[in-house]
């Protein structure tokens, strides 16, 4: 039987606070000196991983998925049928990559609103 492990939040190396919505992604920089976090509050924040200091905040509407739709800000752009619903996403500028349960990946680009590239 495995021993139970309990987190002791008093001894955490850092607790980064600042997002007002759910944090949906977190990653370290290649050198481990910074952490980036993305949130449903429509911000991406860059942190110093040693001090916990907020270094930069990027704001604005970006492509994401909400309730089976590709959205930009509050605008629904494209409804995703069940076989195209994502298990993970990545966004770069106006391009969104969707990973699917089937093992496929869809890459979609948008010019303005619902206009595809």
Automatic annotation (TrEMBL):
Keyword Repeat appears in the UniProt entry: yes
InterPro entries: WD40/YVTN_repeat-like_dom_sf (IPR015943), WD40_repeat_dom_sf (IPR036322), WD40_rpt (IPR001680)
Record key words, sorted: Repeat, WD repeat
Classification via Pfam families: WD40
WD repeats: 16-57
Gene3D superfamilies, per the entry: YVTN repeat-like/Quinoprotein amine dehydrogenase (2.130.10.10)
Protein purpose: Involved in mitochondrial fission. Acts as an adapter protein required to form mitochondrial fission complexes. Formation of these complexes is required to promote constriction and fission of the mitochondrial compartment at a late step in mitochondrial division.
Family note: Belongs to the WD repeat MDV1/CAF4 family.
Name of protein: Mitochondrial division protein 1
Protein source organism: Stereocaulon virgatum
């Amino acid at each position: 039987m495995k021993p139970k492990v309990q987190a002791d939040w008093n001894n955490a190396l850092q607790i980064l606070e600042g997002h007002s919505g759910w944090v949906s992604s977190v990653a370290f920089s290649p050198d481990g000196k910074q952490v980036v976090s993305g949130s449903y509050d429509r911000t991406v924040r860059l942190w110093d991983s040693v001090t916990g200091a907020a270094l930069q905040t990027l704001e604005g509407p970006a492509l994401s998925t909400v309730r089976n739709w590709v959205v930009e800000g509050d605008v629904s752009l494209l409804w995703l049928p069940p076989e195209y619903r994502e298990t993970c996403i990545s966004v770069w500028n106006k391009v969104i990559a969707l990973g699917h349960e089937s093992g496929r990946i869809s890459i979609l680009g948008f010019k303005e609103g619902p206009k595809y590239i």
